[in-house]
Amino acid sequence: MCGIAGWVSFERDLRAERATVDAMTETMSCRGPDDEGTWVAEHAALGHRRLAIIDLPGGRQPMSVDTPNGPVSMVYSGEAYNFGELRKELYGRGHRFETDSDTEVVLHGYLEWGTAVAERLNGMYAFAIWDAREQKLVMIRDRMGIKPFYYYETPDGVLFGSEPKAILANPMAEHTVTLDGVRELFAFVKTPGHAIWDGMNEVEPGTVVTVSANGLRTERYWTLKTKQHTDSQADSISHVRELLDDIVRRQLVADVPRCTLLSGGLDSSAMTAIGAQQLAETGETIRSFAVDFVGQTENFVADELRGTPDTPYVHDVVEQSKTDHEDIVLNSDELADPEVRSKVIRARDIPMGMGDMDASLYLLFKAIRQHSTVALSGESADEVFGGYQQFFDPKAQQATTFPWLVKFAETLGDDNTILTPELHRSLNIGSYIQDAYDTSVAKIERLEGESDFEWRMRKICHLHLTHFVRILLDRKDRASMAVGLEVRVPFCDHRLVEYVYNTPWSLKTFDGREKSLLRAATKDVLPKSVADRVKSPYPSTQDPKYGVALQNHGKDLLSDLGHPVFEIVSADWLRKAVVAEGPQIHQASRRGLERTLDLALWLDMYKPTIKLS
User: Fold this and answer.
1) Residues lower than pLDDT 70 in the chain
2) Cα torsion for 503, 506, 507, 509, to the nearest 10°?
């Protein structure tokens, strides 16, 4: 795992701009603490920060291959889990390798197949190739959008980077956010390609972006397609298990210590149990880590989202799978610490306002990094197999909007109540969300003969896999790479995603519960308590001290009414929120406080120009 950055300019000599390229690359130091490198030619410059995972001594970047018509140079972030098979195939085609890294395999794959190399990769990746033979830059991102990748068009070329901060370090990039950017911050719909910052775009998942003197061209090499599912229930369960066994085995490969993230839910428990079983074949014990909060298990109060605490289920898995386990127990002072909030905002480049869930994730990863460099996560299983409450909520099923927004409104309230009345009117978030929904649904293919109910569920599954999961993948990548930890996501393997997406909803829920296929495919390795457990989202602290700390920080903010955050957030709303009373501050007030504090800190750190008209 690594951080990449670069600059292509067809009208200037970038050999005189090395200092700027170095500055762009340096912003990625957290993603790559082990090594750094810069490659500069007349019209192209590539920067790389390395987190060494495979072939520790031999995988240095940028990596180049000289050809009779000029060098082909690459910076690469991610892992190709099938690089061994590809290496063997390329060797048979006459390619010779100087390292044992997957990076060199991907580079030679490009030399052999051009941009079609992307279709052959199994993994998570974002990479850029300067092809001097044709004076063009090629940018490629993985199918599910696991690895982030951004670009910013300039009058004579492009800037790019793993994260916006790399691009913003170049003087040519303006630090501007328009109304559309603010809409995206508050809509929670993850519009494909949208980067919040004006003029900046994401390389969309499953796409190739090519930049030449003639301009920029985007091609899609993968999309989530509708196909007929003909396997029986038994065969579907068997195939899911075969895929999971293969995926986990591939993703456990590393030349550094690895572990699993264990929540006690079905997803992470199944992954951990399969991994433990596989490593036991060679006499190894898998490490596992879980997050918990001081007093959470003892004082847990069930609510609409979470019916049970995680820790007892975590320990059931640990006992059965014999993992080398550690609970990372956090307190409210840590979660509310402005310094931690600052680290999270810096990691994400935008204020997403997920509060203690962002803070705890960052602190969990920071603690894990002291022991492991690679962690496997259960992320995206809910999107793939249908695990969230909104999949089963008749109101969400019937809604002509993103289904998670229906459930959020019921359980978490409306984030937009914190906005100033003027901004709320200008944003017209409702229309923005509706346009995004209509655009997305129009791209989904309906299966011939599909019932109206199955069609509704297909749309819900598709939206989760192309919008919602990307919010969570981006969050996980930024929080983990901020501390130099690589997090792998087995449930995002495109073979599994494609197969399960096309199983009918009746098959996904054949036992009358969520994630029936996953439960049936892995029940042999799970404790009964976990197999029977109802879905519980990522944990959030219930300690009232956390809410009080947020209120105190909000009071500090109110002492400076000239702060630019009050162009966005209503000071009247904040005054009421900081004096709310009760053993638990109302969830909506707490979320609003988290969002307000994030916004204020982001404005202080990035000093963006906000254009609200």
Assistant:
1) 1, 582-585
2) 120
